[in-house]
Amino acid sequence: MVTNKNSILRLSRYKNALYRFKTIGFFKIFSDYLADAVGVTSAQVRKDFSLFGISGNKRGGYQIDALIEKLNDILGKNELQKVILAGAGNLGSALIKYKSFEKEGIKIVAAFDIDPAKHNPKLPVPVLPLEELESFVKSHNTKIGIICVPDIAAQHTLDVMIRAGINGVLNFAPIQLKTAENCIVSNVNLETELENLIYFVNALQKAPNVRLTDN
Amino acid sequence: MVTNKNSILRLSRYKNALYRFKTIGFFKIFSDYLADAVGVTSAQVRKDFSLFGISGNKRGGYQIDALIEKLNDILGKNELQKVILAGAGNLGSALIKYKSFEKEGIKIVAAFDIDPAKHNPKLPVPVLPLEELESFVKSHNTKIGIICVPDIAAQHTLDVMIRAGINGVLNFAPIQLKTAENCIVSNVNLETELENLIYFVNALQKAPNVRLTDN
DNA sequence: TAGATTGTTAATCGATTAACAATC
DNA sequence: TAGATTGTTAATCGATTAACAATC
After folding, report:
1. Which end of chain A lies in a sparser environment, N or C, as judged by fewer CB atoms within 10 Å?
2. At what angle do helices A190-206 and B5-23 cross, to 10 degrees?
3. Domains of chain A, start order
4. In the 44-83 stretch of chain B, whose C-beta falls under 7 Å of nucleic acid strand D?
């Protein structure tokens, strides 16, 4: 199987764009239009599709419904994805309440924190002691975790998750974590994203001929 | 000037790692160690540095303090960065309260929303009507904006920001926005990140020999 | 049929890495 | 000095794009 992180990211974007096309009444779509909507070339779209064995009609483009179905299947969106979260601080709490996850079939089923003041098992998404993470994950058979704890606690939190049997982690702490064979760590860092943006804005103003490649 | 998005992202990571090395008492560092801390090769570190004219000592490695100073300078972190935000929903509100920005010299100075119920000019970070965005940006001379509005409102919000003179936008809406010459849009999409992670976890379990390239 | 679009191959482009001369 | 590390060049690797034959 081909594993190119970028191509999977693009599949998600295609899917989102297709829903929008559907909303405005389209049934079929050409690689050209989809490419435009997502900001890539049409060759890229066709290449991505062929990578995953998705095919269209030589002259009629792609059926939107069938395409969405296929993409959702590839992306594992045809079943509800249960996720746990560690670190019920500012960002963590926001993610718990974040509506768009639900819409995408992703549900945060429990949060964990070391601070007893934050514990509350009665909330819709219960906030529990970190010590209970392992037993929760085992009894609820969850595979995905989100880390929203401070820098310094991130590695320990990951270790706890790995021991519990988590196989994929979205890490918001700005630190490179050491993971295990059977656990993938994906990093999101908002400060870094902003830093990055600021750099390019400054660069653009100093040298207006500078061009960017990706988003 | 060289503009490789990845290399700038790595500069941020190097900087973060260097602060940690400093905390534990290091004064000098070799490209090797730094590479390990960030999860890249030492050649990558040296290459990145040489791209930005950063040099070390042929046998003594790099002075941490001088290196941090240089990186901060490149990343524009030696002055406070003022940022505005549109969309004071769940995620927007969390970002407003997000402590790590402040720590990184990034300050959200005002938020804008179309919902009058959310308006409150007296908060530490005032929430104002979207119509006031333009005059605010002009009088406060801000260049960076964050978009946390729903999908459907994102393009209009960007247009308002561009008209106001914003040059860089961090967009959380899962949609490809059409921007102008003088405004860079950088996308962060949490649903997509999770989708992606879920895909790779599933792929890993189906075919345990699958390997990932980047984080 | 003629025209347009897919699917795929080959060419291009860019980023990462290996390797090593320079040198502290 | 001998040994180790930088800085840079050239080689490699991988991803994107151009181009076009197949075909609806």
Report:
1. N
2. 120
3. 5-74 (1.10.10.10), 81-192 (3.40.50.720)
4. 46-47, 49-50, 54-59, 61-62
Q: Do A175 and B90 touch (CB under 8 A)?
A: no
Q: How confident is the model at residue B204 (pLDDT cuts 50, 70, 90)?
A: confident
Query: Do residue A205 and residue B167 have CB atoms under 8 angstroms apart?
Result: yes
* Portion 136-175 of A in contact with B at CB < 8 A: 143-144, 146, 151, 167-170, 174-175
Report the amino acid identity of residue B47. K
Kindly tell me if the per-residue pLDDT of A212 is higher than 60: no
Q: What type of residue sits at position B66?
A: A
Mean pLDDT for all residues in chain A = 92
For A5, the token pair is 């992180």
Query: What is the model's pTM?
Result: 0.89
Which nucleotide C1' is nearest B42 CA?
C17
> Which tens digit of pLDDT belongs to each residue from B23-73?
999 999 999 999 999 999 999 999 999 999 999 999 899 999 999 999 999
The answer on pLDDT for A174 being more than 90 is no
| B142 and B134 Cβ atoms separated by less than 8 Å | no
Asked if residue A110 lies in contact with residue A84, where contact means CB atoms within 8 angstroms, the answer is yes
List the single residue in B93, B185, B190 with the smallest CB-CB distance to A215: B185
Beta-carbon neighbour count of residue A72 at 10 Å? 16
